[in-house]
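Q: Is it fine to ask for two folds in a single conversation?
A: Yes, each is treated on its own. Send the first.
Q: Here.
A: Result:
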Amino acid sequence: MKFILAKKIGMSQVFDDKGNVVPVTLVEAGPCIVTQIKTPEKDGYFAVQLGFEKKTKNIKKTEKGKEYKHLKEFRIEEEDLKKFNFKEGDKIDVSIFQEGDKVKVSGKSKAKGFQGVVKRWGFGGAPKTHGTKHTLRKPGSIGATDPARVFKGKKMAGRMGGDRVTVSNLKVIKIDKEKNLLLIKGALPGRRGTILEIKSI
């Protein structure tokens, strides 16, 4: 399994061989450093921990081993560990991927704060005529007749976004090794600057 940490830059578009427009998201992928190898003997499972983006400020003595802004573990199988021969201090960059690879990308979706039911759930709202006043975007009745309470899971106003989202079956369209860029087809979760986890399928 191939994996890397990346930062979302933004969206653009490219043209394929047939002249069709392909929407892509540009991500700055790595370079990442292998900071730790976890094994069943010590930790109970196989995993590779990657560090991405070194801290620019002075690092305290108590923060030794935490000189990276972002640390993330990727669970792997023993066969993959032997195949790629990961070791502490190894560098992983975009060259681990190839154009045409299928990947899945995980990240935190864009947080939108406290929103009403029309924006959050797509409610249609009340009619705009026939005496409707100040209730265009209200949720309407929310209770039940028999148990005098609101059922759990009722679609109501509340905080929207800021959740972990995974998008699968995406395609790597282009790789720029000099600038550490991956062009991935489609939209990816989060705003510009969101840290993403990219894994091969």
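Q: Second one now.
A: Result:
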Amino acid sequence: MTEVSKRVVYIEDEPEMVELVQIILGRAGFEVAGAGSGLDGLQLARREPPDLVLLDLMLPDMDGWQVYRELRADESLKHIPVIVITAKSQSIDMVLGLHVADVDDYISKPFSAQELVKRAERVIAQQAAGKEQA
């Protein structure tokens, strides 16, 4: 029996970035669905809850932090790990993301393919380990 691929929702308004991440993570066995806006991403995550959400902070309809708060407020989605992927690479943004908002990881653009795969796998593994302990 083959292993089920991990589902990822990538909320990003740049189609080229979504395509790039689909290629990178697809080669590592992930299934990546893209959403071009915060509202579309929330609807997609609610319709088919993923194993991981990748979230850009600069979106056309609502900012990424607002999307993150909505994910955490939803009982069916609050357990899903979130990695912020953004061009906002100033240290204050990273501190806000990791320590104030408590996202699972924060990746600055540009990033390497290996870094993305490694971090996605690590965050999903940590989530799975947490479920086993609960």
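Q: Anything structural to flag on that second result?
A: Two points. The mean pLDDT is 87. The chain has one domain: 6-133.
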